[in-house]
Design brief:
Elements: H1 2-18, E1 26-29, E2 36-46, E3 54-59, E4 62-70, E5 75-84, E6 90-94, E7 105-111, E8 114-119, E9 122-128, H2 137-140, E10 144-147, E11 170-173, E12 175-178, E13 185-186, E14 195-205, E15 210-220, E16 226-237, E17 243-254, E18 258-262, E19 269-273, H3 276-280, E20 286-288, E21 312-319, E22 322-330, E23 339-343, E24 347-351, E25 354-357, E26 361-372, H4 378-389, E27 394-395
Length: 396
């Protein structure tokens, strides 16, 4: 736990150094500790410096697109994907003399309450946000994100129905206890009218580097009153063929004097549920764990041992004769004491409990790396996690 806190402090220090304002003309990623391959990076600049949504950056590796994301009236972020060797310094400079336009991520509304993110005509993620209906609680009780295979040919997550129908794609829930009451407000199963409910899209993210959105989601108690405000940000990055990279950030703000977010490792937290075909063929499921837990059999689920603070975990599974690996990376800034859950039917993720007072906010950050085909090695996943946990420093 101490090491996780130290890593979090180092991350904040690096991000602060990487995102300073000033002359926005060029930046240097200097001597990263590890190879970078399509690694998402950003710098913060004054919003008024750029009118465009897309700019070009030139480096010794050639021109590439960068994406300007306006956070507010004062601040913008410039995102790009860095590819360079460990120990190598590369300067990235804004270049108006070249045209590096590429296809961009873009949202489409497929049907009411179902939006789909595309890249160059290929679906990437899908947001389902039904309007709650007391006459049809089962199908309308939570918003969630589904994930497509990297080639866009099919969904690799489960929606409604199937084994444990409340498990849906990438989803979030807790058992909540409000103002000291013993009454459970079950946002995980959401059987009795308590629920998480889509409020609005705050901001869409569309461009050549990343696509996603920032959402306002209401957490509603058994009396129909809101008790938590959630801001959920989901962002998919352009990656090499056969891969996806998806960041999920959730901010939960208490609207009551005391909100205890509880549950257990199997019924709370931010978790991933693979398609129903995985449950129908669970014998093919394997888990790839960090070195400290590598002695555990890959085909056997973790039990209820007191195993805490996995930096990452990965699940390998099969759908229609195709194999996929989903790596679940937990950012070191997340609360410590997290318990990992695994189920060979296709669900995994971590849980921790947290008590919030009025206006206090819990922030959670996760990254999902999806790879089609042969499973990545433990070393490859650790490399992905390390770059996420301690991103490269960026200098002016």
């Amino acid at each position: 736990m101490i090491m996780k806190n130290i890593i979090a402090v180092l991350f904040l220090a690096l991000i602060t150094g990487a995102c300073t304002s000033g002359n926005p003309a060029s930046w240097v990623i200097e001597s990263p500790q590890r190879d970078l391959v399509s690694e998402p990076v950003f710098v913060e600049v004054p919003a008024q410096k750029f009118d465009e949504d897309t700019i070009c950056l030139s480096s010794k590796n050639g021109p590439q697109p960068a994406q300007v994301e306006r956070i507010n009236s004062q601040t913008a972020r410039i995102w790009w994907l860095a590819t360079q060797n460990a120990g190598e310094s590369v300067r990235y400079s804004v270049d108006h003399s070249v045209n590096c336009a590429e296809s961009a991520f873009a949202w489409q509304t497929i049907e009411p309450q179902l939006d789909r993110l595309f890249m160059n005509g290929i679906p990437v993620i899908q947001y389902e946000y039904p309007v709650f209906d007391y006459e049809d609680i089962e199908h309308t009780k939570k918003p969630f994100h589904q994930v497509f295979s990297p080639d866009g040919s099919r969904l690799i997550t489960k929606g409604t129905g199937g084994l444990f129908p409340h498990h849906r794609g990438i989803f979030l829930g807790f058992y909540a206890y409000i103002d000291g009451s013993d009454e459970r407000v079950d946002i995980w199963h959401a059987r009795n009218g308590e629920r998480s409910e889509h409020n609005r899209v705050i901001r869409k993210i569309e461009g050549p580097v990343a696509g996603g959105h920032v959402l306002a989601i209401d957490w509603i108690d058994l009396e129909g009153e809101k008790f938590v405000d959630e801001i959920r940000e989901v962002r998919a990055f352009r990656q090499p063929d056969g891969q996806l990279l998806i960041d999920v950030r959730s901010e939960l703000t208490a609207l009551r004097d005391k909100v205890l977010l509880g549950g257990d490792r199997h019924h709370a937290g931010l978790q991933f549920r693979a398609a129903q075909e995985v449950a129908d063929n669970r014998e093919a499921t394997r888990f790839i764990r960090p070195d400290a837990w590598s002695h555990m059999p890959a085909e056997v689920e973790l039990g209820d041992e007191n195993i805490l603070d996995f930096p990452w975990n990965a699940m390998f599974f099969e759908i229609e004769d195709h194999t996929y690996t989903v790596a679940y990376l937990s950012h070191p800034s997340n609360p410590t004491g997290a318990e990992m859950s695994e189920r060979t039917y296709g669900r995994f993720g971590e849980y921790f409990s947290q008590e919030l007072t009025r206006d206090e906010t819990l922030v959670m950050n996760y990254r999902f790396w999806v790879k089609k085909g042969d499973a990545p090695s433990r070393t490859e996943i650790q490399h992905r996690f390390d770059n996420y946990a301690t991103p490269p420093a960026i200098q002016q």
